[in-house]
Amino acid sequence: MEKIALITDSACDIDMETLKENNIYLLPFRIIYKSEEFMDRIEISPQEVYNRLSTEIPSTSLPNIQLIEDTLTEIEDKGYTHVIAIMISSGLSGTYNSMRLMCENHPKLTCEIFDSKTLTMGEGSLVLSAAEMIQKGLSFNEIAEALPNLRNKVHVYFTLETLEYLRKGGRIGKVAGTIGDLLNIKPIIHVGDDGIYHSYAKARGKNQAMSKILSILKDYLDKVKCSVWILNGGAPEEGRKFMENVKGLNNIVNLFSGDIGPALGVHTGPGLIGLIIKEEE
């Protein structure tokens, strides 16, 4: 009889309580400062990372290889026969490849390493869907076959307070970033089907950016029922304000709020507002 373990990484932005409730194994990213290192969400919270950005911008690194090995060994020792691992987009991180290679050391486990091609609660929603399917008793093959279709129904958009952190990280040209800041341009970024960031739109000022994101959501809701996540990165008040604008919209099946973790946040800085949409049947 199949016994299926579910694994993800901390880029999924599922809170610790929900992970425990659903028996999901977490592989935390490493948040690395000059003098110290932390395991994401286990040893440092997203808010603590945002609070420290003004003094030092940390780097993020893949989950520890030994931790991946120990997790797989624990899973095997507990009698699991199958593993479904849903990872951050391979276009944004090497975590997917690391997991794939480590699973080769465990031939007794039948593993499905799934490239979510997204992150934050886009990835997280896929993990929670997989957990629900496991709880309902679906087979390993049924879950593995369902994931690509579910992935096509998940959409991630976000807007930034400043282009400074993207510029520091080498993700945009210095001149474009400087001019953008001077003109108060707020980009709206979309995670594409290829699993990398794409510029979706630009807005003059944060209010216009938030209106544009609301408009994106309404376009989806006009066509289909959706579950919606409103996430913030170091901007809880803006997140709450946007949540109020979303409440009461037709066709929202579930509405959630939460924090965007460092996997995305250290590259974008505080002031991030994210919209994650999952099309429902």
TrEMBL record:
Keyword ATP-binding: no
UniProt KW keywords: Lipid-binding
Molecular function in Gene Ontology: lipid binding
Highest taxon, organism lineage: Bacteria
Ribosomal protein among keywords: no
Protein's job: May bind long-chain fatty acids, such as palmitate, and may play a role in lipid transport or fatty acid metabolism.
Protein's UniProt name: EDD domain protein, DegV family
Organism: Clostridium amylolyticum
